[in-house]
Design a protein that fits this description.
By secondary structure, this protein is of the alpha+beta class. The protein contains 14 helices and 23 strands. Strands 21-22-1-23 form a 4-stranded mixed β-sheet, with helices on one face. Strands 2-14-16-15 form a 4-stranded mixed β-sheet, covered by helices on one side. Strands 4-5-3-13 form a 4-stranded mixed β-sheet. The N and C termini lie close together (5 Å). Bound molecules: uridine-diphosphate-N-acetylglucosamine.
């Protein structure tokens, strides 16, 4: 177990470079199963979740080499061996190999991922979609077993725009017989990134970024090796933007696709934060105390649930009262209790948090319950009066590439210590 000792009253200043996106990397690694050959993937962030996905590919028989920010996968010798609870417990997104293993081998056996800290996170939409593509699904003794001779193209309408279900179904349909049309899909930029990868290996996928995706199935021999570059991590960028705002700093982030940040930019500007956007960069100039704003998390291009905890940290210091409504995950307010320990005035009523801005936060000993909750507590601690201790930083390592190095390069004072 490791923890961060974080000095308060920091003012972050300088320039950092965003890493590649975690949520874009994981499905591309899962999709690399499909082409039964080599994929070279660039701009890969060094994250625990990425290492877990690499272990999973190796468990299946792939050769994986991760050097600096490039991963080379050779999936020629993969076999659809069982994926145990142990691997699934290390990372929920391991469920992303469901579609690609089923598409390539017609068989997959994977432990049920179960719920997690932020919500129950069922798999019903993934499984319903795979059934429409012709798979038989059995759920027994904690495992999902999906089988099909060859998947067949179908029309699928998702009940809600699940990111993971859209990704699994896109991957499964690449090798299906005929055309698949998936409606009401997730529109996140990570889906466009996955589409680009799938097309680079020879798939025929169109429409990612809109609410309908069309996949024309190809034969396995039509797929080929490919090189692909991962898009920048919009949630990492957003987190450092809020870090600049909450510390009254002046931070420029490069390697950014500003359009991916639109919902966050709008809210930061509404709160009175000075944000400049240029070609491949954003600059955030903290402007004194922010104004209260209301936030409702929504699927992209709505406000991202993965930025809700960080914005709550910022709004806990706003002038006035903000109302934050979490519509995506039912249990994503675990950071509230910890922010309160630092002096925040936040009341939770069901899926809504009422955040009354206070003049200052005070350093405290707090605990990261999940990835983004941990990120929000770093931000609160950097701005607080006095030092803080943040426990359970392994959650942060799942999704932030060298986080303390980047904060410290901006003048933050964060030390990692063994608990
Ligand atoms: C992905 C992201 C995660 C982000 C989330 C929402 C990755 C690796 N993770 O997670 O960081 O917070 O999108 O933007 O990309 N649902 C169902 N049935 C299903 C699937 C989902 O009811 O079969 C529900 C979930 O419980 C949740 C909502 O749909 O309430 C959205 O989940 P989903 O978009 O699937 O999130 P993930 O893909 O797991």
């Amino acid at each position: 177990m490791q923890k961060f000792m974080i000095a308060g009253s920091s003012r972050l200043k300088g320039t950092i470079r965003a890493s590649g996106s975690k949520n874009a990397t994981l499905p591309v690694l899962a999709a690399s199963i499909l082409n039964a050959g080599k994929s070279v993937i660039r701009e890969v962030p060094r994250l625990v979740d990425v290492l877990v996905m690499n272990d999973l590919l190796v468990h299946l028989g792939a050769k994986v080499n991760f050097d600096r920010d490039i991963i080379e996968v050779d999936s020629s010798n993969i076999q659809p061996v069982e994926i145990s609870e142990d691997l699934m417990r290390r990372m929920r997104a391991s469920n992303l190999v469901l579609g690609s293993l089923l598409g390539r081998f017609g068989y997959v056996k994977i432990a049920y991922p179960g719920g997690c800290q932020i919500g129950s996170r069922p798999m019903n939409l993934h499984l319903k979609g795979l059934q429409l593509l012709g798979a038989t699904i059995q759920e027994k003794s904690g495992y999902i077993i999906a089988e099909a001779n060859r998947l067949t193209g179908a029309e699928i309408h998702l009940d809600l725009p699940s990111v993971g279900a859209t990704e699994n179904l896109m991957m499964a349909a690449v090798l299906a017989d005929g055309v698949t049309i998936i409606r009401n899909v997730a529109k996140e930029p990570e889906l466009v990134n996955l589409q680009n990868y799938l097309n680079s290996i020879g798939g025929h996928v169109r429409g990612a970024g809109t609410d309908t995706i069309k996949i024309e199935g190809v034969r396995p021999e039509e797929l080929r090796p490919a090189e692909h570059t991962i898009i920048p991590d919009r949630i990492e960028v957003g987190t450092y933007m809020v870090a600049a705002a909450i510390t009254g700093g002046d931070v420029t982030i490069v390697n950014v696709i500003p359009e991916h940040l639109d919902p966050l930019l709008a809210k930061l500007r509404e709160a009175g934060v000075n944000v400049t956007v240029g070609n491949g960069y954003v600059r955030v100039l903290g402007n004194g105390r922010v104004k209260a704003v209301d936030i409702k998390t929504m699927p992209y291009p709505g406000f991202p649930t993965d930025m809700q905890p960080q914005m709550m940290a910022l709004l806990s210091l706003a002038e006035g009262t903000s109302v934050i409504t979490e519509t995506i995950f039912e249990n994503r307010f675990k950071h509230v209790g910890e922010l309160r320990r630092m002096g925040a005035d936040i009341k939770v009523e069901g899926r809504t948090a009422i955040v009354k801005g206070v003049d200052r936060l005070s350093g405290a000993c707090v605990e990261a319950s999940d990835l983004r909750a941990g990120a929000s507590l770093i931000l609160a601690a950097l701005s607080a009066e006095g030092g803080s201790v943040l426990e359970n930083v392994q959650h942060i390592d799942r999704g932030y590439d060298r986080s303390e190095t980047k904060y410290n390069a901006l003048g933050g004072r964060i030390i990692r210590v063994q608990s």
